[in-house]
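Sequence in, structure out.
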Amino acid sequence: MSIPALAHILPRFLLLVLLCAPLVAGCSSEAEKPKAKPAAPVTVARATRKDVPIELRAIGNVEPFATVALKSRVTGMITAVRFKEGDDVAKGALLFTVDPRPFQAQLAQAQANLARDLASANNAKEQAKRYASLWQEGIVTREQYDQLQANADSLSASVASLRAAVDNAKLQLDYCFIRSPMTGRTGGLATHAGNLVKENDTALVTINQIAPLYVTFSLPEKDLATIKGRVGGRLPVQARVAGSAVAEQGTVTFLDNGVDPATGTIKVKATFANAGKTLWPGQFVNVAITLDTKKGATVVPTRAVQTGQQGEFVYVVKPDSTAEVRPVSTGPSLDGMTVIEKGVAPGDTVVTDGQVKLVPGGKVAVKGGAPS
């Protein structure tokens, strides 16, 4: 193309470029403009003020106050069982009868022997008295008197032995009637009427005393200083069976004399009246020891508290529906609520669900819980 032609076209091309430049810049700015991030859906709750009990919590095991395995003290045949399995029995209640007839015969024989020797002993004693007078008068010799006195002493000793035999026979007869040594609840029967039992052999039945009873649990050794000065009926305890709304009230009555070096815990026992028999031996229960009550504490749902590299924090929803990160200092937790010592005031709205989608200063959309 000739130079004159280029000179003719160039001004028009430059004019076209200048006219299109704003349009191109506008399109570029629209393409590079970031899109607004949608509000994150969250669930929230209000920080409230309430009295919070300060507690130590543990898992405990229910134990009977006392356990007795009844055995027969004599050998014989069971003639009667006076209760049903699982019955509540009173102290002194007759539970089993062992055939008493052989022992009644032994008692009668012992009593007869005692009566015979008692008569002989009385006669010998009187003879010794008479011979003592005759010896003083010189009518009989000292040897004769000593012989009669020795016979009287021997018969007196025999009478004492037979009295002991009678007492033993009475005791053996009494052992035929097996009674409950305490108030409690019977377990399963190990024998029935008609079976032969041996002296001090297998247990006939086991009785557990369940009112009152114990709950045994372990606490970390760091709590030892807190509780050791308050044992002996001055430290209240609650025990609750999992899934039950009823909590039994008791007191700590025993603290072991040493810390288990393998676990770093110490064994504790609490006594419960268990009048309603809510607790049962062998159960596992949730135990809570109430140490004190924190008045007017600020609490939030425990799930609102998050943990980061800088420590614990919560997301607070501000009035303009944006999220703010608040570092917090927490206290004890109870029933899904956590005490906030510092960082949140009563009435603040905290995020309890949806924190993973939040960024500081980001918009939030409340989908549930307290209004923002």
